Amino acid sequence: xxxxxxxxxxxxxxxxxxxxxxxxxxxxxxxxxxxxxxxxxxxxxxxxxxxxxxxxxxxxxxxxxxxxxxxxxxxxxxxxxxxxxxxxxxxxxxxxxxxxxxxxxxxxxxxxxxxxxxxxxxxxxxxxxxxxxxxxxxxxxxxxxxxxxxxxxxxxxxxxxxxxxxxxxxxxxxxxxxxxxxxxxxxxxxxxxxxxxxxxxxxxxxxxxxxxxxxxxxxxxxxxxxxxxxxxxxxxxxxxxxxxxxxxxxxxxxxxxxxxxxxxxxxxxxxxxxxxxxxxxxxxxxxxxxxxxxxxxxxxxxxxxxxxxxxxxxxxxxxxxxxxxxxxxxxxxxxxxxxxxxxxxxxx
Length: 348
Ligand code: ATP
Fold this sequence. Notes:
The protein is of the alpha+beta class. The chain has helices at about 40-50, 90-100, 110-120, 135-150, 165-180, 195-200, 220-225, 230-235; strands spanning about 5-15, 15-25, 30-35, 55-60, 65, 75-80, 155-160, 185-190, 205-210, 210-215, 240-245, 250-255, 255-260, 265-270, 280, 285-295, 300-305, 310-315, 325-330, 335-340. The chain contains eight helices and 20 strands. The strands form four sheets. A six-stranded mixed β-sheet has the order 6-7-8-3-9-10, with helices on both faces. Strands 13-12-11-14-20 form a five-stranded antiparallel β-sheet. A hairpin with a 2-residue loop joins β1 (about 5-15) and β2 (about 15-25). α2 (about 90-100) crosses α3 (about 110-120), α2 packs parallel to α4 and α3 packs across α4. The protein binds adenosine-5'-triphosphate. GO terms for molecular function: ABC-type transporter activity; ATP binding; ATP hydrolysis activity.
């Protein structure tokens, strides 16, 4: 069992606020991803849970027990960092075994535990190699095995895939998801990569400038972003955002007229996803010259400029036109997202 509760947790350094009033309960066995741009407070939040950083305010509870004053080693959490920090002089076997020795675990159980952990991350063949004789992905797996061997109730992972190439990332990502399930552990995973977040998480916490912007399942966050920050951070490409005006239920901006919206008159920010739009030669809601065309294989991405915004729509893969040709983009009303022009908060 490991339920983690953060209650009003903040971290300040002088006047600078790294994490601001973080409130969240992470369920036993949940896979929670902290997502946000560099400097938003993800690592600091994680370090406070691990006990490597003291909160300035608030309480951290594990299974109902306040752990603020517990040393990291007494918290039953195992952390995997982006830099693997392996011992260069120890072979893979001894690296994986290290936490057991440090924690005084009964020596007669070491071999079995190390073999089990190394098998889980498919390192059995490499046990006698030194870290310098391994690839980046293999070293990363040693770091994972070293966390697994402790059989913790909580895994904290800070960008564990950031040093891997694209292909290894995908396979190691799948392995992490599977491991967390198999070990029945509660996992908190930090990343700035929204695809990693969406594929791994039961729930995602989107952070910016130390403040939680939204907590929800990947689908919630994709379908109903709470504000323009979340909207512009999630999705590939990110949601299109156009500043304009509502008058009599119609949204207008340069090149743009979308009737039939339920919103009161005044300035507004309208959002839509490239994949929800359709592209034709004429008759749609946005009529503008093509700024650029990208052939993606399964589709053609068409972009136009609306003021300072670059707006993309997904066309059929057979769609062909030249830069500068007029194009027409249609957005179904129920795929229009409306945000307050000033605060960026979602309306409705
Ligand atoms: P990244 O993805 O770049 O690792 P992050 O979201 O993990 O970013 P944190 O490492 O949590 O960000 O840092 C949050 C903010 O707190 C940053 O602006 C950082 O500069 C600041 N910060 C972190 N540690 C300290 C410290 N010891 N003293 C002062 N400011 C700090």
